[in-house]
Amino acid sequence: MTATRWLAEYAWLPDRPEPTADVLIEADGGRLTAVAPLSAGNAPTAGVEVLADAVRLPGLTLPGLANAHSHAFHRALRGRTQGADSTDSGRGDFWSWRDRMYEVAARLDPDSYLALARAAYAEMALVGITCVGEFHYLHHGPDGTRYADPNAMGAALVEAAAQAGIRLTLLDTLYLTATVDGAPLAGPQRRFGDGDVDGWSDRHDRLTAAPHARPHALIGAALHSVRAVPADQIATFAARNEGVPLHVHLSEQPAENDACRAAHGVTPTRLLADRGALTPATTAVHATHLTSADVTLLGDSGTGVCLCPTTERDLADGIGPARRLADAGVALSLGSDSHAVVDPFEEARAVELDERLRTRRRGHFAPAELLTAATAAGHAALGWADAGRLAVGARADLVTVRLDSARTAGVPPVGAFFAATAADVASVVVDGRQVVADGRHLTVDVPAALRAAIGAVTR
């Protein structure tokens, strides 16, 4: 990989409250080797010739954006659970939506999952996402029978990310029961289960070796939720995954909290804490319905929280306590979850705007805080601590946003997260390689790929 140079009209550098003008960026071997604001008097490393060779990046250049929580197959549900397309005329709740989701889950096999995930990840690349955390529990055949390769579905996701040109953390998920009180998996859920934590470990250990181990992919772990993992197996699971990215759905629904209290006498957060599952390597997804004590437990344990505002909005889940979590020391990241919307700018500004709805006050998160949630914090939650910052030594991920579109014209660069949309992403570089140019994916016809892949698994 040869050295590459770019000249960003504006770039958002680490620990700065707003973007900097005229920044020369150099990379070699997929790593940033120089990030020099020319307005500060920094001379190019090889004089005027360097500037002549640099690729101009008009607009605002950001570090790569991270999608810390994805269920790739949910992309097939977009627009199919609303209004006339929904069996409940767009009403219902999370649980009725879940029934529709299970219908799609039952139809997938390794080949159709590869096609769908490739298209979904390519759509993510188009909007500036350079790394995705895939919360993966579609392990086996529709009746629960293992494939000849027990990780065939996970391997499809790893390959899909490679073809889409982004990095992946495969959060291989433990999913054992249907309810908090231990009801067995039934119907499409049977393909999620491994019997017990030992069965999961046996299959998961094979993911870390060839042919599944790939340079663009990390293998993490996930505990689906307290309703899907018996309490007596949580501690074993946490101990076996110490130090690796470990994600868990937490308190997304009040019903989950009520069932946990009824079965165990404590909240889901306390149940996880008592069993050693809350650590600095853990990310709790959603964390929507927390008590004050829950917030303190998350902060004191160093656990991160991934907010998924557009999904939480779409499913009428509620608004999580984002500011209280941040004030307790919780690192916030962002995810698109069900892919009802894939737009990291919408996710980021929703963190602030949802707080405004709750409190009827403005100004809860500074723009730089939203940038961190969308970039460095998300990458760290996925085990890629060397990404998400425009700094020497970091991965050469560059996302350039237009400042001359109908949405962003006249907007100061610092206001991009409150004005730009996914459609304003013009250029995306991942590990030094161009993936998106002029708003188009260089190797995948994304609309056509999505139409074909979704059509194959929906009726």
Question: Care to describe what's here?
Answer:
With 459 residues, the protein is of the alpha/beta class. The protein is 34% helix and 21% strand. It is built from 16 helices and 16 strands. The strands form two sheets. An eight-stranded mixed β-sheet has the order 3-2-1-4-13-14-15-16. Helix 4 links the parallel strand 6 and strand 7. Helix 3 packs parallel to helix 4 and helix 3 runs antiparallel to helix 16. The longest helix has 17 residues. The radius of gyration is 22 Å and the shape is globular. The model has no long low-confidence stretch (mean pLDDT 94).
Structural features:
459 residues, alpha/beta, 8-stranded mixed sheet, 8-stranded parallel sheet, 16 helices, 34% helix, 21% strand
Q: How would the blueprint of this fold be written?
A:
Layout: E1 4-11, E2 20-28, E3 31-37, H1 48-53, E4 55-63, E5 65-70, H2 94-105, H3 110-126, E6 129-136, H4 152-164, E7 167-174, H5 197-207, E8 217-223, H6 231-240, E9 246-250, H7 254-264, H8 268-274, E10 282-286, H9 292-301, E11 304-307, H10 309-314, H11 322-327, E12 332-334, H12 344-359, H13 367-374, H14 376-381, E13 398-401, H15 416-419, E14 425-430, E15 433-437, E16 440-441, H16 446-457
Helix pairs in contact: 3-4, 3-16, 12-13
In short:
The protein has helices spanning 48-53, 94-105, 110-126, 152-164, 197-207, 231-240, 254-264, 268-274, 292-301, 309-314, 322-327, 344-359, 367-374, 376-381, 416-419, 446-457; strands at 4-11, 20-28, 31-37, 55-63, 65-70, 129-136, 167-174, 217-223, 246-250, 282-286, 304-307, 332-334, 398-401, 425-430, 433-437, 440-441. By secondary structure, it is an alpha/beta fold.
